[in-house]
């Protein structure tokens, strides 16, 4: 390391050189920012979809409601939903035994994955209560996003407010977090277990509040006793976890995974992270695009290496090293500032049937690039125009999915050659509020264009090919 350089500064270069798909990373040591890094084109202040990291925020909402006397962990779940109870003959015998603490600790008693059965219905709470419960609540760990949804629904019922409005004066506001977007079920109840978006630096603030035992800058947010309970082992999550994912087999608290070294974390799909390590006086917040959550263990290992004082990577590192590494492969550049395109301007290309429902494409030249119009049919909010520049990336807005819903969101566009066909072009779309990076590869085919769609991470289809023909 160079003189005056911190060990934390080595971590971004190690991430970039390894190809680990980390988009943003904030480290706090002793309550101060030790590292704040964003891979291009991601940046500070842009909300990031947290997926299941939302669960940990919902847990704190329950703790705040408990502190206010609105509920207790031992309250029966059915007591909050007298209007949604299944018929007596269809009611699981264990349902009356299910308590709030069982929802918090993922021990509601379900053996299987009830998520598809619950979210396929309009009324998620009624669907949850109608599910078969095979185990005595409190005896069997089963990770369950619908359980966290029920916690959100309970807080909304006892407070009379939606979850975001409940948390604005009690959590988000005191932490200096602007009112966030949090997705909802079809009836408008906050999803709880998913769908919250926060900037990376705000996730770090949340982690610092946890580290300080429920206070932030001297203000009490949630009781220290609740933090202790939430971050202590309440259920055993060790069964079936691969040996290489050691920090996912250390026990489970109230919507927090316990880790080595007395640390704990909230996490979400594709590697969203809020890690708190009291023994190291450390908070780490990250947003990633991991195709496998096994890669989260790699990131955790590196953070713990740093926290324990081990060297991160040998050799001298400079800011220029990081900038060079992160720029490599992000955007293509056009020779002489222009590309020949495989499709004709001002011509409508009708796209064959495809999983996305894309109907047609049309290109209109601009001074330094082109606008590409995507048409998904009448009334489809995804239809619209995106700008592309031959020499640089452009930022625009487009409608694309987040967790449960489509949202108008920021997207960074770029164009580059196709590695497969000299006549083809790759159009890249970085949806910088999510992990999603979409690539359209367009190349000429006989009397048509061949369009290939690819997305780096997804819960659904990850690619398709379709021909596009002149109308």
Descriptive keywords:
6-stranded antiparallel sheet; 471 residues; Beta-lactamase; 10-stranded antiparallel sheet
Question: How does this model look, in words?
Answer:
The chain has 471 residues and is of the alpha+beta class. The chain has two domains: 7-307, 3-Layer(aba) Sandwich (Beta-lactamase); 335-470, Lipocalin, CATH 2.40.128.20. Helices cover 23% and strands 25% of the residues. It has eleven helices and 20 strands. The protein has helices at 10-18, 54-67, 100-104, 115-119, 124-129, 145-159, 163-172, 200-211, 224-230, 294-307, 319-327; strands at 22-29, 32-38, 48-49, 197-198, 215-216, 219-220, 257-258, 264-268, 272-277, 282-288, 348-351, 360-365, 369-375, 384-389, 394-401, 406-417, 425-430, 437-445, 448-455, 463-470. The strands form four sheets. The protein has a ten-stranded antiparallel beta sheet, with no helix packed on it. A hairpin with a 4-residue loop joins strand 15 and strand 16 (406-417). Helix 1 runs parallel beside helix 11 and helix 2 runs parallel beside helix 6. The radius of gyration is 24 Å and the shape is globular.
